[in-house]
Amino acid sequence: MGKKKGSNSPALTEAQKLQAKKDAFTRVVPQRVDNAIKAIRLVSQCASPNYSSTDIQKQAIIVAIENEVKLLKEFFKGNGKQSGGFKLPD
Questions:
Q1: What is the pTM of this model?
Q2: Cβ neighbours of residue 20 under 8 Å, at least 6 residues apart?
Q3: Residue 84: which of 62, 68, 66 has the closest Cα?
Q4: What does the domain layout of the chain look like in residue ranges?
Q5: Does the structure show a pLDDT above 90 at 89?
Q6: Sign of the dihedral defined by the CA atoms of residues 15, 18, 24, 27, in that order
Q7: CA 38 to the chain's CA centroid
Q8: What angle do CA 46, 35, 55 make, to 5 degrees?
Q9: Would you place residue 81 in the very low, low, confident or very high pLDDT band (cuts 50, 70, 90)?
């Protein structure tokens, strides 16, 4: 495999590849975590008296978010698998 055709840059060493991955991680994670926190706060606003929901719907929202947090923990342990989407019960 090696370098791409027409590429004048030298191949990266393993240490450089690892550093590039670390740099990418520290670049994208803060914004993604902020977005996740903002999204959870937006969902929590649905608990206000301006909305009407059943106890079953409220519990489904909480369980769905808790399950995603559990999956997040598993991903960081190296065992995670993608879940399906969320559907609000009637």
A1: 0.71
A2: 12
A3: 68
A4: 13-50, 53-81
A5: no
A6: negative
A7: 13
A8: 25
A9: confident
